[in-house]
């Protein structure tokens, strides 16, 4: 019943072999076979002889828990075997969360309580500025990752679709940034520590997304992330040298 509830995925994807086995990452023509009259059977991978995607009969909550645990199988299910197109909206929302956090910290450091309209407009502009800075930092981080991977493994990113798939994976794996808002709302003495844990969790998720998407070992994704962080911090230093609060 759970299997039928997910509906039939795109036939075009099956024709192109766009599905992947969540165990061995090999291409698969189909996720399951419909024998009519409600009889469905999960396809078996010809390479590893395991179910191509066991998650198609799992509850979404279970899939989410497995993704939070950074299981490669859950990431392959989400990236290759489902049609999720929320990466753009998720990216914008995460940037808004990060901009709000920075804007709030900036307001806390300001002692001006003048209710004048000019002050309110200035504070609103500060939020837009923080959003722009967060966007540039995120872009620098992603560019650093792409440059490193393209330089070290150019065969992995040969086509435009390869870049788009990796970008989608990185944006989706940054969902941990949504925890920034609860960390601010439930502010307490351990908030800075919570922010550090959120940052580490996002980086671990990004690493797993790179590893799953490009079928790499654990070392290269972390090297790409390290270079991305270096480029991101370079942008931060640039803004600080310009006298901007970041």
Give an account of the 3D structure.
There is one protein chain. The protein is mainly alpha-helical. It has 2 domains: 19-80, no CATH class; 85-242, no CATH class. It has helices at residues 2-5, 11-15, 60-68, 72-80, 87-109, 117-152, 160-172, 180-185, 191-214, 219-241, and strands at 19-20, 27-28, 32-34, 40-42. Strands 1-2 form a two-stranded antiparallel ribbon. The model is unreliable at 1-16 (pLDDT under 50). Belongs to the ARV1 family. It is a multi-pass membrane protein. This is Protein ARV.
Short description:
The protein is mostly helical.
Report the portion of residues in β strands. under 5%
Write the element-wise H/E pattern from the N-terminal end onward. HHEEEEHHHHHHHH
Number of strands: 4
**Domains counted in the coordinates: how many?**
2
Strand order of the largest sheet: 1-2
Taking all Cα atoms into account, the compactness measure Rg is 21 Å
Share of helical residues: 55-70%
Contiguous helical run count: 10
Protein name: Protein ARV
Family: Belongs to the ARV1 family.
Transmembrane segments: 127-151, 163-184, 190-207, 219-242
Function: Mediator of sterol homeostasis involved in sterol uptake, trafficking and distribution into membranes.
Chart the SSEs and their pairings.
Elements: H1 2-5, H2 11-15, E1 19-20, E2 27-28, E3 32-34, E4 40-42, H3 60-68, H4 72-80, H5 87-109, H6 117-152, H7 160-172, H8 180-185, H9 191-214, H10 219-241
Antiparallel strand pairs: 1-2, 3-4
Helix pairs in contact: 3-4, 4-9, 5-6, 5-7, 6-10, 7-9, 9-10
Organism: Rostratula benghalensis
Subcellular location: Endoplasmic reticulum membrane
Protein name: Protein ARV
């Amino acid at each position: 019943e759970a299997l039928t509830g997910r509906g039939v995925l795109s036939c075009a994807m099956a024709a192109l072999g766009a599905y992947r086995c969540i165990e061995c990452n090999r291409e698969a023509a189909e996720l399951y076979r419909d024998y009519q009259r409600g009889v469905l059977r999960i396809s078996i991978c010809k390479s590893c002889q395991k179910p191509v995607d066991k998650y198609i009969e799992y509850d979404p909550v279970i899939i989410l828990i497995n993704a939070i645990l950074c299981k490669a199988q859950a990431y392959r299910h989400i990236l290759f075997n489902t049609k999720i197109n929320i990466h753009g909206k998720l990216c914008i929302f995460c940037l808004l969360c990060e901009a709000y956090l920075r804007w709030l910290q900036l307001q806390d450091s300001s002692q001006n309580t003048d209710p004048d309209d000019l002050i309110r407009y200035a504070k609103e502009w500060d939020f837009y500025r923080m959003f722009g800075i967060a966007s540039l930092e995120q872009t620098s981080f992603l560019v650093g990752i792409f440059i490193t991977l393209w330089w070290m493994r150019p065969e992995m990113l040969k086509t435009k679709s390869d870049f788009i798939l990796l970008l989608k994976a990185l944006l989706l794996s940054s969902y941990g940034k949504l925890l920034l808002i609860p960390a601010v709302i439930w502010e307490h003495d351990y908030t800075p520590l919570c922010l550090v844990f959120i940052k580490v969790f996002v980086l671990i998720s990004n690493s797993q997304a790179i590893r799953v998407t490009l079928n790499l070992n654990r070392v290269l994704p972390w090297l790409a992330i390290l270079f991305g962080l270096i480029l991101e911090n370079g942008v931060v230093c640039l803004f600080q040298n310009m006298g901007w609060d970041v």
